[in-house]
Amino acid sequence: MRVRRAFRFVIATFSGISIGLGIGSAADPASAQNLIANADFSSAEQLTGWIENGVWSPLDWEGDPASGSALNSNSCPFVGCSSLVRQCVPVTAGERYRVEARVRIEPGQVSGNVLLRVSWRSASVCYPAAPAVGQSVISVPAVTGQWQLVGGTFAAPAGAQGADLQLAVLKDSGSGNLAARFDATYLPEAEITVAAPAALAALAIIRLRRRRRGWPAVDSRAHSRELR
To answer: Closest Cα partner for 119 from 80, 166, 78, 77?
Structure first.
């Protein structure tokens, strides 16, 4: 009977914590603070907060008349040219970050690559001379003329203090034009993780035993550190 009651207590405790915190997964991205300024390219802000190439486009991925997107068009006459719309945000080395954007590429253009690219920098102010300490790249998989959600999660490498988020368009030739629209850019605060399920279950058992034996209460924060 004691074992069965203890088991039910552990399951109830663990289930409550799971629902409240999201065990074994990152925090809900919707609740995380986006580090990108003017991430949705509103009609009032247009490309404020972004630098280098690109113009504002009224074509919004949700059709919002008060918003728009960044149109990056590459017509460079040289092979290997890249056209960038970019923004720098501070990050912490070793932390994990989610990078996302909505991207739209119209068919019938010259070949090339459209990328979300993060150049990890050794200073929180990326420009003009902070050395790169790593790079993470997300390729847009298809040319459909429709908005696509692309993204990935990366750990900031050792020495990283800034993330240079680049909305990049690269051509394969020195002729023609390749353009893409970017919207709903997302690079939030570092992901928050919680203790693993096995650690939380073990902590629940410890609490139950101590209460039954009249032992002092357990400091959950200290035990969470120990169990991790």
So the answer is: 166
Q: Provide the 3-class DSSP secondary structure of residue 57.
A: strand
CA neighbor of 163 nearest in space, from 95, 107, 211: 95
Q: What is the chain's length?
A: 228
Higher-pLDDT residue of 81, 125: 125
> In this predicted model, what pLDDT tens digit does every residue of 177-192 receive, in sequence order?
999 999 999 999 987 5
Sequence letter at residue 38: N
Question: How far is Cα 212 from Cα 207, in angstroms, rounded to an integer?
Answer: 9
Q: Please give the Cα distance from 88 to 35 (Å, whole number).
A: 9
**Listed residue (153, 39, 46, 40) closest to 87, CA to CA:** 39
Q: In what order do the strands lie in the sheet with 55-57?
A: 55-57, 69-74, 178-186, 96-104, 148-155
Residue 120, burial from CB neighbour count under 10 angstroms (0-12, 13-18, 19+): buried
Q: What is the pLDDT of residue 19?
A: 34
| Other residues' Cβ atoms within 10 Å of the Cβ of residue 108 | 6
Q: How far is CA 126 from CA 50, 121, 132, 171, in A?
A: 13, 6, 9, 25
C-alpha distances (whole Å) from 193 to each of 21, 190, 207 are 9, 10, 22
- The Cβ of residue 6 has, within 10 Å, a number of other Cβ atoms equal to 15
